[in-house]
Amino acid sequence: MKKLRFVIVLMLVCIHYNFGQTGAYEKETKAEKAARMQWYTDARFGMFIHWGAYSVLDGEYKGKKQKGALGEWIMFNLKIPVKDYKKDVVGNFNPTEFDADTWVKYAHDTGMKYIVMTTKHHDGFALFQSETSDYNIVAQTPFKRDVIKELSDACKKYGLKFGVYYSQAQDWYHPGGFTPKKRWDNQQEGDYDTYFKTIVKGHVTELFSNYGEISLIWWDSARKVQNKELANEIGRELVKLQPNIIVNPRLSPTSQKDFQTFEQVIPGILTEDYNELCLTQNRSWSYKPSDTNWKEPAFLLKTLTHMVSIGGNFLFNVGPKPDGTFPQQAIEALQYIGDWMEVHNEAIYQTKASPFYKLPFGEAALKSENGQHSIYLFVYEWPKDGTLDVLGIKNNIASVSILGQKNTISVTNTANGIRISDLPKKAPHEAVSVIKIQISESLQIDEGYVKPNLDNTIQLTPLNALLTIKPQYDCIPFVAYHNDEPYFANWKNCIPTTKKNTGNKAHWKIEVAKKGRYKVNLRYATKVAGNIITLKNKQRLHVKLPNTNGLTNFQSFELGEIELTKGINTLTLTGGKKNELWDEIQIQSLELIKL
Length: 595
Description:
Layout: E1 7-13, H1 30-43, E2 45-49, E3 60-61, E4 64-65, H2 74-77, H3 82-89, H4 100-110, E5 114-120, H5 137-140, H6 147-158, E6 161-166, H7 192-210, E7 216-218, H8 228-239, E8 246-247, E9 260-263, E10 275-279, H9 297-309, E11 313-318, H10 328-344, E12 362-369, E13 372-379, E14 388-391, E15 399-402, E16 410-413, E17 417-421, E18 433-439, E19 457-460, E20 466-468, E21 478-482, E22 485-489, E23 505-512, E24 516-526, E25 531-537, E26 539-545, E27 550-564, E28 567-575, E29 586-594
Parallel strand pairs: 1-25, 2-5, 2-11, 5-6, 6-7, 7-8, 9-10, 10-11
Antiparallel strand pairs: 1-28, 3-4, 12-13, 13-18, 14-17, 15-18, 16-17, 19-29, 20-23, 21-22, 23-28, 24-27, 24-29, 25-26
Helix pairs in contact: 4-6, 4-10, 7-8, 9-10
């Protein structure tokens, strides 16, 4: 029997922040870009909407069930002929209950500040009236209404920014559009450049010309663009029609961008100036009632506060039903977050990333104005004894309060920070309570990065790690204990029928006073032999791990040596590449020993 193996990749990355990166405009200065991006960074929270003719189907067509998890990919998954899809799917798309005002009001009441709407997905069907192609909602469906126009108008009414998603690379209807692997219908045959110059340029010109201000363009499938030079050239032409537009990084592999996207991966750290997580509530982007893997509202709320704490945006996806209404699960999640936002929104809008590396009880955000500083503590683990220690703050505190509460609480300075006391025994909110700390002097904060011990060893554990996770696989590592020692549990393969790594990562930020080499020991447990460790930092080392004969039988193994540079270093622990096997491992610690 062939032995299973799994891969852990250990990468040492010294993060360099590129503040001079060009955005959507070649000659734009850093200050000009910051001004254009201001509404986006202030907003922090938006709604993604995936909706189209594919929403009519529930992963099944003419008795054949879709193998993929994504409802919007059914035409490709089942290789539905173009004419049949047009007749049976597009022809039956009649969302009589659609009301743009209702949709935008949901976003507004949830505290969202912008909406990004699918205008054309990979099936090539447009949700707006078009002279470029008659394959659109007005010309081909009994509904005959311009959904994009109505949503654009509703966003203006409620004061939300309006953005559009457009699938430029893939198009399974128009001749010449890209299809993964190979085309399955003769109508798809054609020249890609001609498709891009006519359909893509024509469609987006209409979107940028006929719907007022478009605040953001969300391209997709950059790696599938067949002529990146042409795409970049047309992209530069199009943005001139919307001079203040914000552009995502997916026009082509080499296109200019304004922000980094994280799709279905909740990042633990960010390395660029502007960042956005887009995340589904279940697995499918579009409506698929058979997909019942709904994320809990509390998890989604914590995802919002987490993204705010690291200085990013959260674009929460909703897949409306074919009749034009929102699924009940989405409504409940929006209402849950909206109720929280009504009380705590000042901790979200116009904030910056946490001034702390990591807090044991939750996360934080910072807001600074006119010499006044507000630190918002997102408390996930409410202290049962009514006392909360916040290490690293060296300032005198002007005031401290609980958002939404009138309780009088106390604060005192300690040798290592501050102590907040007289807190109520019961958490003000079941998932995320917020404590506001106000400081009226220049901030003096020790971020709390991992530092060497007196013996020059560095201990990296789950308790001082930051996590990047892929929650759609229901395989999120969490901290468990064995003999009072913490370890990462549930770090395993969770993708059905495969043994592939799910992409979870642990990060540590380490601060050292001077450059040096360190020996690295991994303490772990596994029941599988042959696991491969990859150690990367200019050099690349591959090490096979022996079987420890059990998931609680922790043993140490030397991985090799790494070099840390003076200042802040980022160490990342992850599984292997997509095509490398993965099975369960329990990670207890990494010990770095100065040589």
